[in-house]
Amino acid sequence: MQSLTNVAGRKPTLSLRAWIVPAVSFVAVWALMGLLPGLAALAASTLIVAASTAPSGHVVRVSTMALCLGLAACPSNPEGEARAAAEAWLDALNAGNLTAAQELSTEATKGLLQMASTMGESMAVGDYEIVEVKLTSDTAATVTVDAENEEENMVLNLGKIDGEWKVGFQK
Q1: Do 43 and 103 belong to one domain?
Q2: Which CATH number fits the domain that encloses residue 117?
Q3: Which of 19, 53, 98, 123 keeps 20 to 30 A from 9, CA to CA?
Q4: For residue 139, how far is the Cα from the chain centroid?
Q5: Is residue 165 packed enough to be buried (19+ CB in 10 Å), middle (13-18) or exposed (0-12)?
Q6: For residue 155, which phi and psi values (nearest 5 degrees)?
Q7: Contact residues for 157 (Cβ-Cβ < 8 A; gap 6+)
Q8: Phi, then psi, of 149 in degrees rounded to 5
Q9: Are residues 85 and 153 in the same domain?
Q10: Edge to edge, what strands does the sheet with 164-168 contain?
Q11: pLDDT for position 105
Q12: How far apart are CA 21 and CA 24, in angstroms?
């Protein structure tokens, strides 16, 4: 039986060191891009492992790292970002953290929250479930929320301001 050899005629070895860089790269890219694009990061990380066993691995390794960085620069998931902003806003309201809720709010909603706080009203929504996230443009989304303390579904109007999703709400 013929043994596997690399270009230099040596048997490839996969040491622990050969797995550290790809593993860290994979986790970092996966965290930056989300679950599904993580599969592309897995493929790129596998190339790094293969590169570490080749005699010209340095060139291949650098190329593969560039591929990983390119994958990390892929467009993000605006729907997921809008959902996360809405969840953070709702969680801040439930925690009674007016400052955090205001940081995640549009200017009009900041004023509404301040007025409710001044009047002693609780803005907590209780347990909630996000029913729908709908992008209406690259910088606008509506998030429908079924909240325990509300008789009807809440509709949050989110806008992307200076690259960050901000929650707009009308009571």
Answers
A1: no
A2: 3.10.450.50
A3: 19
A4: 17
A5: buried
A6: -120, 115
A7: 140, 141, 142, 167, 168, 169, 170
A8: -90, 10
A9: yes
A10: 128-137, 140-147, 154-161, 164-168
A11: 96
A12: 5
Chain length of the chain? 171
Residues 85, 162 share a domain? yes
* Dist CA 155 CA 160 (whole Å): 16
Neighbour-count burial of 4, counting CB atoms closer than 10 A to its CB (0-12 exposed, 13-18 middle, 19+ buried): exposed
pTM of the model: 0.57
Q: Per-residue confidence of the chain (171 residues) as pLDDT tens digits?
A: 555 555 556 665 556 655 566 666 655 555 555 544 545 555 555 555 555 555 555 545 545 554 555 455 454 689 999 999 999 999 999 999 999 999 999 999 999 999 999 998 888 999 999 999 999 999 999 999 999 988 899 999 999 999 999 999 866
Residue type, 32: L
Tokens describing residue 53? 């066993």
Asked if residue 113 and residue 55 are part of one domain, the reply reads no
